[in-house]
Each structure stands twice: as structure tokens, then as C-alpha cells.
Amino acid sequence: MSSGIPADVTIKILLVDDEVNITKALRRLLMEYDQYDVFTVESGADAVLLLEEQSDFGVIISDQRMPGMTGVEFLARARELTPDAVRILLTGYADIEASISAINQGAVFRYLTKPWKDEELLQVVAEAAHGFWLVAENVRLNALVTKQNNELQEWNSRLKQRVLDQTSQIRAKSDALAESNQQLRSSFDETIEALAGLIEMRDRRAPGHSRNVAELVTAMAAKLEIPIAESDKYRSAGLLHDIGKIAMSDSLLVKSLEDLDKKELKEYRSHVIRGQAAIDTVPALRDIGVLIRHHHESFDGRGFPDKLKGEAIPLGARLICAADMFERLLLQYPETDALDSSLEALAPQWGRALDPDLRLSLEEGAREVYGHLDISAEIFETKVNPKELEVGMQLRHDLYSGTGIMMLKQGTVFDAAAIAAVKRCLTIDPFEREISVLIDRSKMENAE
User: Fold this and answer.
1) Are residues 219 and 282 in the same domain?
2) Mean pLDDT lowest for which of 294-298, 336-340, 420-424?
3) Helix (H, G, I), strand (E, B) or coil at 36
4) What are the tens digits of pLDDT across the range 387-417?
5) d(CA 208, CA 296)
6) Counting beta carbons within 10 angstroms of the beta carbon of residue 439, is it exposed (0 to 12), middle (13 to 18) or buried (19 or more)?
């Protein structure tokens, strides 16, 4: 008869009866099954002692009528010592009440009457053994699940910490990379600014011209809501738009366009091509080189070097063309009237040399960039020693180092960084000690 439990599992069975022939008969019957490990004792007291030593019995079979301790009393005690064991009571026909007590007190699984039928007893024992194994297996599986859950929780905790650590490392690397990129970007911008300073040193007739064009182009791009990345590219092109003039002869640089002969005019117009070629070897500057090449194209197609027309001219080049033309006009008028006069003089060029769609952005941008040219009665000009510079003062004229490198453009409002830069330059490349600045009289009075 199959017990329904795995073949490699052994169930310990305890037989308790004061009649030795009864326990021998039961033992012979059960020992036919390899999965049963059978123990016998002759009294409830001895059985209790055994259970106190070994609590891993799966099935306990006890006679009811025994001297000293009845089967009911023993099974109740056995329930305390081995609560998971399945208990079976052997009783006579006259002991029905005892059987009921055993069920109530000892939590007996079944009771069998003497004399028993072998097949019935074996069936009951098999069911008891299977029941005990199921409970034990459930306990084992629950313990295994609990252990695995704990291990999984611990693994998840370690994984979470590892993810946090890796995230922290990635964030640190990302921050370091961002800082490095920012430093590279700053170095790039500073290099462009330095090149612009060299360009302006080459063409002394237009001090600050490249920086002014770049600032105006940036202001126009903001009015047109051009993305920052593209606007930065336009600014760099504005700073470098005249880089090709470095290769021009000194005699050509000092002449106006109206005084150039045919050969000289051809050389002058080649400066945009030279400018593109000069920076084309630097991949990061190639897009900027295209804008440099085309910043003298005219909207009506009469410009140079490729006679592009309308929107075929890159937008950045159209912006630089307008800013360049406007900025050169400023030099032809007194400062107090330069802004309005230059805008008026530029008017005929819209739709001809200049893209008419850029007019509003130039006019609004110019008033922002060159607003310092409109000096009110509340603002006066004075000269101060670099040591007397204060935050909020505004530079009246472009400021150059002793060897002619532009440091700050006119209109710059001094902050702590600008003042520190001026003082550093005094020790590196000394210049004239007095600086022309604008001071708002109303703010000074309010401060007093």
C-alpha cells in the first residue's frame, strides 16, 4: 500500500502498548514498508521519556488501557511534546467514551478498535504518515521560501545600494564631464575673443568693431528667438567675420572702398574667402567659416563672393551683414546722435543689401546694445583712476591695454569681475591710468 510520500522519506512511528504481543504484531505489520522506522515502548511514561529525547516522530499509535497512564492521558501529553505528530488510539468496543476524550484532549487523528483489520490499520497509518509529511513539507517549503525571500530582499538591498553607488558615480562623472565641457566651451569662447582682439589690432580704423558686431548679432538672434546653440555660433562668426583682413596689405587697410582700384577691390573682396579658408582646418569652426564667407552677400544678389540671393544666404550671414553695416555707420555720427542717425541712414538698404525681415530685430537690438549713446541730463562723464572704479559705473569709451588689445568695450557696466580684470591688466600690460566712465547723478544723490 502506497503512503503517498516520496521514496527517499522515512517516517518514524511510535507504538505504545503494555501488551508486548500487540506491539510485536503491529511492528511486523508495519516493518514490511521501508519508509517506516518503528519504535515500541510498553507504557505511557516510557513513551513520554522517549518523546522528550526525540521529537521527530511522525505517527504515534497508543493503546487506551494501560497501567499508570491511559492512552488518552498519554496522547494529551504527546500533543504537547510533538504537536505535529499524527496520533492514533487503539481501543476496545467498551471504550467509546475514552475515544471521544482522546479526540478532544489528544487531538487524535483516528481511533481503531481491537481487534483491528490489517488493511484498515495500514490505510490509516498511511494516511497519517502522508498527513505528517505534508505538514512537514509545508513547514520546510515555507522556511525555504522565507529564506529565499530574505536572500532576495538582501540581494535587492545590495542591488539597490549598488545602483545608488553606480548612479552616484555616473552623476559624479557626468558633473565632471559637464564641468570639463563648460571649461572647454569657455576656453573656446576665450580663444575666439582673443582672435577678435588680434583682428581689431590689425585694423585700427575700427576699434571694437568685431565685438560690437558680435554683441548686436546676439541681441538680434534673441529678438528672433533663435536657439542658444545657433546664436552662439552666430556670435563667434561675428567676432571672426573680418579674420581674412589679417592677410591684407597695410596700404589696402587704410583706404576706403570708394578709393580702391579694380585690383585692390578684388583683393579686398577675397578677405571673406581667406577668412573661411583660415579656419576651415578646425572642424568646430567650419560652420562659422561658411557664415564668414557669405557675410558680404546682398539680399538682392549683388554681393560677393558668390552672389547669393535672398534666403539662399545663410541666416547667420544675413544677421552679420546687417550688424556690420550698421556698426560702421555709427562711426560717422556724433555719439549723442549716432544711434538714430545710423538707423535712418541704414533704411534704404532694407530689401537691397539687407534682409527686410531683420529690420525690427536690428532696430530693437541696436537700442539695447548702444543705449549708452543716448546720455540723459542725469548722467555725467568723468575720469577715474582704476583704483576708484566702483560697481555700477559705465565705461564711456572702449578700453585698451598698453599694447593695444581691447579689454572692455564702451557701454560696459563695471562689476567686481570687470574691475578685477582692469587691475590685473595694469600689472601685465599697463595703460593710461585714467578711465572715462559715466555716472548716474540721480543714483549718487539717492545713495547720499
Assistant:
1) yes
2) 336-340
3) strand
4) 888 887 888 777 888 887 777 877 788 888 8
5) 19
6) middle
Confirm whether 167 is domain-assigned. Answer: no
Calculate what percentage of the chain has a pLDDT beyond 70. Answer: 91
Is 383 found in the same domain as 334?
Answer: no
Name the one residue in this structure whose C-alpha cell is 572702398: 257
Using CA atoms, how far apart are residues 146 and 130, in angstroms rounded to an integer?
24
Please state, in angstroms and rounded to a whole number, the distance separating the CA atoms of residues 431 and 7: 103
Q: For 8, phi and psi rounded to 5 degrees?
A: -90, 10
Q: Is residue 6 part of a domain?
A: no
The CATH number given to whatever domain includes residue 391 is: 3.90.105.10
CB 205 within 8 A of CB 255: no
Cell 504515534, residue located? 60
pLDDT digits (tens, 9 = 90+) for 26-59: 999 998 888 899 999 999 999 999 999 998 999 9
Residues 446 and 420 placed together within one structural domain of the fold:
yes
Q: Apex CA 241: angle with CA 235 and CA 243, to 5°?
A: 125
Q: How many CB atoms lie within 10 A of CB 187?
A: 10
pLDDT at 335 (0 to 100): 73
Torsion angle of alpha carbons 173, 177, 179, 180, nearest 10°? 130
What is d(CA 326, CA 343) in angstroms, rounded to the nearest whole number?
A: 7
- Rounded Cα gap, residues 339 and 323, in angstroms: 13
Find the domain containing 48 and state its range.
Answer: 11-140
- Cα dist. 339→187, 327, 332 in Å? 33, 10, 11
Is 151 inside a domain boundary? no
Q: Is it the case that residue 448 has pLDDT exceeding 50?
A: no
CB-neighbour burial class of residue 277 (10 A; exposed 0-12, middle 13-18, buried 19+): middle
The count of structural domains within the chain is 3
The number of C-alpha atoms within 13 Å of 333 and in the hemisphere containing its C-beta is 19
Dihedral, 197, 199, 203, 206 alpha carbons, nearest 10: -60
- CA 196 to CA 406: how far, in whole Å? 9
Residue holding cell 543714483? 443
Q: Give the lowest-confidence range in 192-206, 378-392, 434-448.
A: 434-448
Q: What is the CATH number of the domain that holds 20?
A: 3.40.50.2300
Listed residues 339, 355, 374: the one ending a domain: 374
